[in-house]
Amino acid sequence: MKEIKELSGDELSRLVVHGMLEKKATNIVVMDLRNVKNAITDFFVVCSGNTDTQIAAIADSVDEEVFKASKLSPWHQEGRQNREWILLDYVDVVVHIFRKDRRKFYDLESLWGDAETTIIEESFEPEAPKQMVFE
């Protein structure tokens, strides 16, 4: 039987970033909300895509990377139909995949300005996630 592997918020965030980079997401930002009062999660990982097709592909890639490593699926997801802003909620990490114009409009980075942010360079090569073997 395959079991879900527990991941820390940091580990899960790295997997999410890896999935985003696989589909050439841009302007990737990891927001650490653990020290922000009344935060609803530990991390936001935010990125942009150029088209609705690209943001759907980014969401699929994130899903695939997280599932391959942990057998974990999002607890909740939104936006796959209109593909302007796709949200994947993994409880400790909430993923926001925006079409560029929508990202500017919602401006999450300003709304959560107290968060410690890490900007991921497009040339960043994350450590490849380790493939987990479950029995």
UniProtKB/TrEMBL annotation:
<comment type="similarity">
    <text>Belongs to the Iojap/RsfS family.</text>
</comment>
<protein>
    <recommendedName>
        <fullName>Ribosomal silencing factor RsfS</fullName>
    </recommendedName>
</protein>
<dbReference type="GO" id="GO:0042256">
    <property type="term" value="P:cytosolic ribosome assembly"/>
</dbReference>
<keyword id="KW-0810">Translation regulation</keyword>
<dbReference type="GO" id="GO:0090071">
    <property type="term" value="P:negative regulation of ribosome biogenesis"/>
</dbReference>
<dbReference type="InterPro" id="IPR043519">
    <property type="entry name" value="NT_sf"/>
</dbReference>
<comment type="function">
    <text>Functions as a ribosomal silencing factor. Interacts with ribosomal protein uL14 (rplN), blocking formation of intersubunit bridge B8. Prevents association of the 30S and 50S ribosomal subunits and the formation of functional ribosomes, thus repressing translation.</text>
</comment>
<comment type="subunit">
    <text>Interacts with ribosomal protein uL14 (rplN).</text>
</comment>
<dbReference type="InterPro" id="IPR004394">
    <property type="entry name" value="Iojap/RsfS/C7orf30"/>
</dbReference>
<dbReference type="GO" id="GO:0005737">
    <property type="term" value="C:cytoplasm"/>
</dbReference>
<dbReference type="GO" id="GO:0017148">
    <property type="term" value="P:negative regulation of translation"/>
</dbReference>
<keyword id="KW-0963">Cytoplasm</keyword>
<dbReference type="Pfam" id="PF02410">
    <property type="entry name" value="RsfS"/>
</dbReference>
<keyword id="KW-0678">Repressor</keyword>
<dbReference type="GO" id="GO:0043023">
    <property type="term" value="F:ribosomal large subunit binding"/>
</dbReference>
